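User: I need a structural model of ABC transporter substrate-binding protein from Gordonia hydrophobica for a docking pre-check later this week. Nothing fancy, just the predicted structure tokens so I can convert them on my end. Input:
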Amino acid sequence: MFFKLPTSALRRTGALAATAALSVGLGACASDDGILRTPDGSVISTTVTRIAEVNIVNAGRDYAKTCLAPTAPDPGATDVTRIVVTDPALLDALCALGMGGQVKGIVAPAGSVPEFLGPQLTGIPALGDTPDAAAVTNAAPDVILSSPATANRLAALRDTGAVGAVRVVTVDPTTEWQTSFRAVAAAVHRSAAAQTRLTEFAAEATRVGRVMDAAQTQVSLVRFTPDAELIEGTSSFGAQVMAQVGVGRPATQRAPKAVPVTDANYTDADADLIYVAFQGPQGTERGKEVLLSDRWLDMGAPTWKRVLNVDDTVWFSGSGLAAAWLVLNDVKSSLNSSSSG
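Assistant: Understood. Predicted structure tokens for ABC transporter substrate-binding protein:
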């Protein structure tokens, strides 16, 4: 792949490691344990705000605010107060419906819940792929939300004998995100609330696009994975939200699928603004090498410091209304911004 340039071809050798602007107080000092503290011993927050000279959009965002306010059940419907989920991908919908507090167990390994869903959901007990009966009894669900991809976890849940005749609803989170959101909402008797929330989001996306004159800015999406450098098309989650806002895309990025970067299509990554995302540590290392290379820096957007880093988990792994609000807020705060400073 063209992007794998040798170190000798890189510009600004002093920036080969990620540039990290740390939010530290003037009186910061390092203790013996390596943690930055104030003179009185209080821990100082350190937030990385730049990677490879590129600003991170909404660095240090408070994920405790991701989930929306609680919603009421549909008129005449019985409320759902205790939920067990076998697929963490279904949690976004519950987060957007303000029902995180009703989730009592997640049949998945620890650490499976995306961080962007916030501490309420990341703190829910992870019951593992094969939960024990005592844990399931303690969760005492009114409804179990499952997916086609986690049928084995649902079977293990039933094998405990602790769920009895509990209602099970299967929703496919890989379908179009608004469709799966409505399906989860129907399962927990929140169809009316779901429609209200989707309408609110659509109205705000339209407003943001109008106020920011979004169609006049051509935005490129470039994603660095451990195995590839990709120019994204229109089918990724972040791209779908940008389309709802009305953000312009370069002509070369208006097909659905992502395409690997080659010598022949290298400059297809350029635009008025480039959002880059890194999938995991290896994707980050690959991205840093590219973003500091001469050929990348000679393109238009990098020259004008119009390259920004967005959260890969939200923009490319997320798929739901809670993640959509985060993407919209990213666009709102950065469409007219730069990486200078």
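Before docking, keep this in mind: The chain has twelve helices and 13 strands.
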